[in-house]
Amino acid sequence: MGFCLQAFVALVLVQASCGQHDYPPPHHPHYVPPPPPPPHHIPPPHPEPYPQPCPPQPCPPPHVEPHPHPYPRPHPVPHVEPHPHPYPQPHPEPYPQPCSPPHPYPHPPIHPPPYVPQHPHPVPPPPPPPVYHGIFPQHFSFGVSSGAHDHEGAWLQDGAGEGIYDHWVHNNPHLIIDGSNADVSADSYNHLEEDVEILNNLTVRHYVFSLSWARIIPNGCGEVNKAAIKHYQRQIQLLRENQIEPIVVLYNRDLPQALEDQGGFLSDQFPKWFIEYANVAFECFGGSVQYWITFADPFVQCYNGYGEGTLPPGVGDNPGVNEYICGHHLLKAHADVYHLYDDSYRHIQKGKLSMALSTPWFEPATDCQTDIEAAETRLQFHIGWFAHPIYVGDYPKVMIQRISQLSELQGLCESRLPVFTRKEIEWIKDTHDFFALTYIVSYHVSAVSDESCLSPSFTSDAGSEIVRIEGDDTWGIRKVVVWIKKQYLNPSIFIVNNGFDSRDRTLQDYDRIDYIKNILIHIYDAMTKDDVRIYGYTHYSYIDGFIRTFGYTIKFGLYDVEFDCPARTRTARLSADYYRHVCNYGCIDDPCPPRHHHEYFGEHVVY
């Protein structure tokens, strides 16, 4: 019994220690009842609603320290740095805001890039589209030119007389750069059929050439050389048979020496001599010639031949006087021959006649008003000297005034410029059927003071200094023809002489091709943009020849001539091929633009 009581007490103590009963049971003598529980507490209402629970947030990925090395694997895999995920791609435009209009379509179209084939070598970019410079109208005439003394040779052959050029060169060989002469030159006199064949191969429409006065009338007046007449008749006949229009120059610096011995252009008998010579030419050749030119380059003949004396006949003892006398007689002779043709031959032969005037373009050196006026004065002294009496009447006013004022300052009783009578002015005026033009080069002009003009000379009278413009000066031809249009009421212009000189005999004459192309571009622009009436262009020359004081050191020809060879072999240059293309198709560019209808001056030209 005692043992059982002890076991019970021990069990109670164990339960008490385990927290099952905090107090002794009620029947225990030391039983104390537990305290009553506190009253049930209800929390007062919260002054604000309970905050809503936050939406569940995605758990951030656990932070894992990168392992310094990849875990060893049975088959090692190269360690690759992680790359950003390729999508989503950024939207090409900002997402529309709530107030902005919706995008026109939910997703912009995606165009795959064009396929570009891969080449083993870099491919250059395609060339730019060609730029075409225009096509001349079908009525525009392309041709070439030559000079009797420059190319004929055959000195004294078939009874020819001596001209002033031959006489001057033979007596002054030191004045020619290479000491040569024109006794044989290109020998075109004895290569007539071959040269006409060259013209035919070039497909030119016209050919400008000069007659040799000393060959036709050896003494200048009197007996006519029948062999020379037969030769030129044969030449004109061959040109006609090949559909090439002959344009005949009566005089091109080849006065018979017999007439020069009597005073030449300084003699008041010169107009009478020239009428006799022209009458022979009209009578013998006029039936096959529709275009005549009385004088080529009258400025060069009078200024260089009788003023400076640097060219035949080399008369330079009275500058500032002789050149004006020469020009005065030359204008009278031109008018007399024009009226001779008008009265006796025009109604039968139906031809046209004019004088070929050569001129550079004079560009003011600065924008200063004095230089601008000096450039205009130069033009009047150069081309206006001969054009103004023919197209307007009398010499230009600035020329009359300046020479008169300077003559007075120089102590002279009268002007050094001869005076036309009223009857002579009317006789010379309007003696032209077209404007024959030779373009040379361009110059910069600077004004000089009258104090530096006290010694009589043409340069002092013009009142300016000129310096040739270096480089490309082909733009000058456009300014020249526009100036002529404004001065002389837009006459019909025929360019009878223009060429490019080179000291190189090369057959690959790309510079000459560029020159011809640029000249034609400016002529075309003058026709289409400035409304200048131009209906023909002539390139000087089709073959090389003897050139003034340069001899054979410079080349003008589309064909090279072997002057060291007795046969004077002709060989075409590249420029001959290009000019043949121009003459054939009338287009500046080679190749021509694609063939289609071209509108030009209101006409549709079909090629």
Automatic annotation (TrEMBL):
Residues 1-19 form the signal peptide. Residues 31-53, 65-77, 85-103 have a biased composition (Pro residues). Residues 25-53, 65-103 are annotated as: Disordered. Keywords: Glycosidase, Hydrolase, Signal. GO terms for molecular function: beta-glucosidase activity. One of its GO terms (biological process) is carbohydrate metabolic process. Pfam families: Glyco_hydro_1 (PF00232). Belongs to the glycosyl hydrolase 1 family. This is Uncharacterized protein. It comes from Psylliodes chrysocephalus. The lineage of its organism: Eukaryota, Metazoa, Ecdysozoa, Arthropoda, Hexapoda.
